[in-house]
Amino acid sequence: MSSTRVVVTGVGTVSPLGLTADESWNKAVAGVSGIGPITSYDVTDFYAKVGGEVKGFDAYEYIDPKVADRNPRAVHYGLVAAQEAVGKSGIDMSRECPEKVGVCVAWMSDSGYIVKQASILERRGPRRVDPLFVSRFSASAPAMQIGMAFQARGPNTSVHSLCASGADALGTAMNFIRLGYADVMIAGGTHSYFSPLAMAGFDILGAVTREPDPAKASRPFDAERSGFVFGEGAGMVVLESLEHARARGAMILAELAGAGWSFNSFDETTSAASAEAFAMKVAMDRAGVAPHSVEYVNAHGTGTRLNDPTETQAIKLAFGVHAKKLAISSTKSMTGHAMAAAGAIESVVCVMTLATGIIHPTINYRTPDPECDLDYVPNTAREANVNVCLTNSFGFGGENCCLVFKRFGE
């Protein structure tokens, strides 16, 4: 692997906390919850009544109406977050070699759209199905639209590792740069999955909380947690080789120093502490940092009965005695679980943590759990001199991806 250093020069977010990275970050620091009653569909017959929906978003204010009409909501979120990230990076795409600018974006196809088209096929026949069905349903839809929006003609791809997808996209984009395929990558994840079909599946599985009170619904690491809360949104970053960023005089927000991947390999739904710990260790090794150098971990922190103690155990395996000295917090306590976008949104959080010296809290933490006995920064933000942080993303099928971010230094 090349020794090329990869840096973050721009970030963008659309989330239940706000429509920009700054708004989302400020509310996260304040411990504001973006979770409320689900309004996207009638929840009468569903166990899950609350979710982290994006509020006040009108795609037509931000993107070409033709593009908005032809694409599902997740693509809208991804485009808007990418626009913010590129804008903050200060990069002038017209001056770039387009073949050296790439895109890597994760998402999960819109099940509501699929159900609608299946119904049209059954009721009205094959000639009435959306002629853009293939492109709108394609896993590459957000990456294609972002690539076209910025005339990026380099590597253009998507990844799908369920809940690890957003982090996976950033790690994959980092490697494209390190291997010399691109100088610049727009990378992240986007997700909008509030549909009766999707929720029915999670309802039956029992992974989503049935708590009707939004203030009690998402409670990672708390003894009274009862499952995760569905969320949506997008997180995007602009990654560049350090050489390229320096050459154009870019303001560098952080360094993406390493990524680690692993797979549980034994069960479709059960997490494995040993595999999660391995991904953390690989990420730190690739980043060239020792466990004791990490000050903060942005946890996967879903709030399920099984995943939180398993992640706690994994952190102990990866960090040893240093685990007790780590500050750990869960963004999902405020946003819910944005699936394919979660790891990307939480990567933006890591960049903001390094930039501001503030660690956002894990809210709704009231009752300690003996199995979750680390420092989860409960309820109140904390000032801290964070130089190295790690973010965990653990996919539902056992696919794990961890990223290490550093405060940039020469």
Secondary structure elements and pairings:
Elements: E1 6-14, H1 21-29, E2 36-37, E3 50-51, H2 65-70, H3 73-89, E4 101-106, H4 111-124, H5 133-137, H6 141-149, E5 156-157, H7 165-178, E6 184-191, H8 196-205, H9 214-217, E7 233-241, H10 242-247, E8 254-263, H11 273-287, E9 296-298, H12 307-319, E10 327-329, H13 332-335, H14 342-356, E11 358-359, E12 382-383, E13 388-394, E14 399-406
Parallel strand pairs: 4-5, 4-6, 9-10, 9-13
Antiparallel strand pairs: 1-7, 1-8, 2-3, 6-7, 8-14, 11-12, 13-14
In percent terms, what proportion of residues is strand?
A: 15-25%
Strand order of the largest sheet: 5-4-6-7-1-8-14-13-9-10
CATH topology of the largest domain: Peroxisomal Thiolase, Chain A, domain 1
The top-level CATH class of the largest domain is Alpha Beta
Shape: globular
CATH superfamily of the largest domain: Thiolase/Chalcone synthase
Question: Could you explain the architecture of this structure?
Answer:
The protein has helices spanning 21-29, 65-70, 73-89, 111-124, 133-137, 141-149, 165-178, 196-205, 214-217, 242-247, 273-287, 307-319, 332-335, 342-356; strands at residues 6-14, 36-37, 50-51, 101-106, 156-157, 184-191, 233-241, 254-263, 296-298, 327-329, 358-359, 382-383, 388-394, 399-406. With 410 residues, the chain is of the alpha/beta class. It has two domains: 6-247, Peroxisomal Thiolase, Chain A, domain 1 (3-Layer(aba) Sandwich), CATH 3.40.47.10; 259-406, Peroxisomal Thiolase, Chain A, domain 1. The radius of gyration is 20 Å and the shape is globular.
